[in-house]
Amino acid sequence: MVTDDSAHDTVVRLDGVHKEYGATTALAGVSLEIGAGEAVAVMGPSGCGKTTLLNMIAGLDRPTGGSVVVHGENVGEASEKELALYRRHRIGMIFQFFNLIDDLSALDNVALAAQLTGTPARQARRRGLELLDELGVADRRNAYPAVLSGGERQRVAVARALMNRPALLLADEPTGALDSRAGEQVMDLLLDLNQIGQTLILVTHDARLARRCAGRLIELADGRVTGEQALEVSA
Question: What is the pLDDT of residues 123-161, one digit of tens each?
Fold first, then answer.
């Protein structure tokens, strides 16, 4: 994977990123930079390119044009093997519908993320239990996803995303499937993580979530950045 060590304070840099799916243009020349420790919210109407943007940064998709550089690594030029390692070691992802494995307990869902990087099972389970405890769901460690509430499942998913101490946390509509109380709890959790230095990019339709958790808002429409503003994070 090609690196650029001059960008050590810039975690994410997109330069003229285009993404086309046949005749459909999902991203049309997006350029932006995100610094270490920033919390950035991306908002816009459905189909504007928000999730495509997140997928570019996660290495789940490749740009048609332009470059995506994360921690000095050109993600778009990486091999599939390099991308798999990049996602396991550098990126934590939180999804709207949790993406937990139904036949694994909460603790096993979390520990699996570390075991895939070669961490011994006992060590992975120990760290997984520490994270579940920090997130207030250690008492549910042996429960399976089907019997967890939405808020509990999202906390387990956050623990899994943090398992390998990622440099960058990506959240795609993290409160979209939650009731208002559980959504507030997840907002508080994301805010706490950023306040201790976690770099965070979140895609959301929820302006309250953006204002609660992010210090900067990027607006997308028709695959382009149409606005950007600083936000004052509210408690």
Answer: 999 999 999 998 889 999 999 999 999 999 999 999 999
Q: The sheet that has 24-35: what strands, in order across it?
A: 24-35, 10-21, 65-70, 73-74
Q: Which residues contact 138 (CB under 8 A, 6 or more apart)?
A: 129, 132
Q: State how many domains the chain has.
A: 1
Q: How far apart are CA 23 and CA 215, in angstroms?
A: 35
pLDDT digits over 53-66, tens only?
999 999 999 999 99
Domain that holds residue 151: 5-230
Tell me if 235 is assigned to some domain.
Answer: no
CATH code, 151? 3.40.50.300
Any domain includes 170: yes
SS3 for 139-196 is: HHCCCCHHHCCHHHHHHHHHHHHHCCCCCEEEEECCCCCCCHHHHHHHHHHHHHHHHC
What are the structure tokens assigned to 225, written together?
């950045």
